[in-house]
Amino acid sequence: MSVALADELHRLEQQRSTGVLRAGDGEFHFADGAITSAGCRRTPGLDRLVVEAGVATAEDWQRAGAGDPDALPHGPRLETLAVLSVYDAAYFLLASPAEPEFVPAPEHWLSNVCRVAPHAVVHECARRGDPEFGPWPAELVASQPVVPARRTDQKRVTLTGSQAEVLAAVDSSRSIADIARDLGRTTYGCLVAVRDLTAAGLIEAPVVRRRHLGLVPDPAAPRLPLPTSGVPELPRRVPAPPRSARPLTGTGGPGRHALDEEAVASVRYRGVRPYQPERWRPVDRDLLIRLKAALEELA
Question: Residue 26: helix, strand or coil by DSSP?
Fold first, then answer.
């Protein structure tokens, strides 16, 4: 996670700033310290989610963006999709090492629809885990095509609806971001499905050279000696603390979205301070009521 971007999000929240925070290939829109919209080139925009969900037409969205926000039917479904798009874009932007840049600007036209606390966004992205966890790190969602497995084990695999939908869209040419855009689903949701399908042996693991985004070597750290053969010796892994019981999250096994202790130890080894999320604030009862209404409407 980008510590610089996380710190900047907290600063803008505390100062109740209004404007645009640019970071990497996307941006956050702020109004009085709250995030009202977020976009990333690796994630489908809110317009795509809204049209695919049947909340509004493409023409309605264009009218709203042109200055007629009443063209969109305000309600729990639109608010839920707007919040999902913020978290989706934030997950990938926070995995980027790019330096953030804030520019004061008027409020986004979605400020009356969506307002998300930056500390909650950072906390959730930290809870989802290391962006390089597993064979599909966040950096590959737009650059690596998803290839179906050529051979599968003769075993029975139970798929969820979203996993089956993603698997049907895999054609050896489209990336995870392309699949998410075509299906009108969040890129993070498709990334989780691809990770699960890879673990089940239905999708080939990507064969790429791993890069550690945002990790800068500590100049004060002692240099490791090189062996006489001329091949650099791999750095020794810092002992990780004992694993503790962690809750199940979804169908991917224990702690799939939790921060991996060994990954955190690796971050400490390179001299980068891992982000420590703050405690949750009391749950907003009105937000829970709106989410319940949205889920009932979607059902």
Answer: strand
Alpha carbon distance 47, 37 (integer Å): 12
Residue 128, token pair as written in the block:
């989802």
Taking the alpha carbons of 217, 223, 224, 225 in that order, is the dihedral positive or negative?
A: positive
Contact 186, 194 (CB under 8 A): no
Q: What angle do CA 145, 197, 158 make, to 5 degrees?
A: 150
Residues present in the chain in total: 299
- 78: which 2 tokens? 């639109």
Relative to beta strand 26-31, strand 34-40 is antiparallel
- pLDDT by residue (tens digit) across 112-159? 889 999 999 999 998 887 655 678 888 899 999 999 988 767 678 889
pLDDT digits (tens, 9 = 90+) for 253-263: 433 333 333 33
The residue whose two tokens read 């062996």 is 227
Distance CA 256, CA 47 (A): 29
What crossing angle do the helices spanning 187-199 and 161-169 adopt, rounded to 10°?
90
Residue with tokens 């599909």: 136
What pTM, to 2 d.p., does this model score? 0.68
Asked if 2 and 96 count as a contact pair (C-beta separation under 8 A), the reply is: yes
